[in-house]
Amino acid sequence: MLGVYDAGRIISPKLADSQALGGMVGGISQALLEHTVTDHRDGRIVNANLADYLVPVNADVPDLRAIYLDGDDREADPIGVKGLGELVQIGVAPAIANAVFHATGRRVRELPITAEALL
User: Fold this and answer.
1) pLDDT above 70: percentage of residues in the chain
2) Is 98 part of a structural domain of the chain?
3) What is the pLDDT of residue 33?
4) Which of 34, 86, 110, 116 is the catalytic position?
């Protein structure tokens, strides 16, 4: 997976990579794994622990790479930087949903995308 970001001037490349790669992993998790299961009898969350709530592990994450556009945006900030934060996660789930649509012809509009949703 490749993410390209316009983050202005990158002050700390290691921190920027950590933010970007972490956001990509979060987006993969949102698109394919994370789902809260509620018991409709009493309204309790069934998978309210890390043993039952699925999150990605190293084997679930493909090769990730982040590229930053050259830029020094003095209008956004006096020192030319912009934040990455949660913005890096926003496009990942829709990109995965579009890839699933192009591979299967089935548009899934609820996350996580499951095999059952494609049947």
Assistant:
1) 100
2) no
3) 92
4) 86
The answer to whether position 77 is within a domain reads yes
CATH number of the structural domain spanning residue 42:
3.30.365.10
Which token pair is 59?
């084997």
Tally of domains in the chain: 1
Q: Which two tokens stand for residue 107?
A: 């548009």
Q: What is the pLDDT of residues 30-62, one digit of tens each?
A: 999 998 889 999 999 999 888 888 888 888 888
Cβ–Cβ < 8 Å for 105, 40? no
Q: Give a yes or no: residue 110 inside a domain.
A: no
Find where tokens 């950590």 sit.
Answer: 18
Active-site residue 86, yes or no? yes
